[in-house]
Design brief:
The chain is an alpha+beta fold. Helices cover 34% and strands 33% of the residues.
Length: 301
């Protein structure tokens, strides 16, 4: 067959990245672009729906290219592409008459579930290879169903404190907030922090900044209950949360609960996600800057 060597090089390049997932995202984005720009526009609204179709289409094409050029970031890119694909159903013309949305969802799942082939495995074409990360691929298939509900979540901070130098309370304070909006949110894993009763297992959450509305913290100092409240609470800098439990509603719709023994996958949250009706058990929090508005402090027996 002609061009044997270029085809071999292309095949080797394709096997080191989620090629087909990226291709479906590019095709889905192109379909979303073609609908409002085609002669069918006489049947399609060119208002906000048309502008959204162009914006989401370009974003999906960019996501597909990112899957090709930055395969190590396939989890984060796929999650964002999935959200945009589902959003296109309501924001555009039924997701490009369902075609662009379906292509985007399938491409996102394939990109998320992709696992690198072990080095040298592609050389033996006759022997079937079993890739590592079967659980990741399975979650990639389920990703459109859960629509990242297990991935997009946050916690609620309170006091600034160095986690390695301070002993946490025996019972973590309870925190509630009606709206939690993190920026640059990542799950740093699970660790143990010291308390008066011994080590305590917590989830470690890091972010660049976070804003909370109607923030409330309750804790006990001996027999007295202390309540700290703020109308608004803004944290910025190197924000780190140490939580033993988190419960909240993603985008105000899908309510989820997480503990150190039940963590979300993938660990990265897109920047535009917010949580409502958040309840958390917070052991510690550190932040470079905390700004509170309408701060109150109460004590009761």
């Amino acid at each position: 067959m002609p061009l044997r060597e270029p085809r071999r090089v292309l095949r080797g390049w394709r096997r080191t990245r989620p090629f087909w997932g990226g291709l479906l995202l590019v095709l889905g984005g192109a379909e979303l672009l073609l609908v409002p720009l085609s002669p069918l526009t006489v049947l399609v609204s060119l208002g906000l729906g048309g502008l959204a179709a162009i914006g989401i289409g370009l974003a999906l094409i960019a996501a597909g290219i990112f899957l090709w050029l930055l395969p190590h970031a396939h989890h984060y890119v796929s999650v964002n592409a999935l959200i945009l694909s589902v959003l296109s159903f309501a924001a555009t013309n039924l997701g490009g008459f369902l075609v662009g949305m379906v292509l985007g969802i399938i491409g996102s799942a394939m990109g998320f579930g992709w696992t690198p082939v072990p080095e040298g495995a592609e050389e033996d074409a006759e022997r079937p290879k079993v890739r590592d990360g079967q659980g990741t691929r399975t979650l990639g298939v389920l990703l459109p169903v859960v629509i990242v509900g297990a991935t997009l979540w946050g916690g609620a901070p309170a006091r600034a404190a160095p986690a390695d130098a301070i002993v946490a309370a025996r019972t973590p304070p309870t925190v509630t907030t009606t709206l939690f909006s993190p920026q640059g949110f990542t799950l740093a894993g699970v660790r143990e922090i010291p308390t008066a009763d011994g080590p305590l297992k917590v989830m470690v959450l890091r972010m660049k900044a976070a804003s909370l509305t109607d923030y409330r913290l309750k804790t006990r100092d001996g027999s007295r209950e202390l309540a700290l409240g703020a109308d608004t609470l803004d944290l910025s800098g190197s924000v780190t949360l140490y939580l033993t439990k988190f419960k909240g509603c993603l985008e105000g719709l899908l309510c989820i609960t997480f503990t150190p023994d039940k963590l979300p996958v993938p660990p990265v949250v897109p920047p535009f996600v917010f949580m409502t009706d958040v309840q958390a058990e917070q052991a510690l929090v550190t932040s470079d800057l905390i700004v509170a508005g309408g701060l109150t402090l109460k004590a009761s027996a």
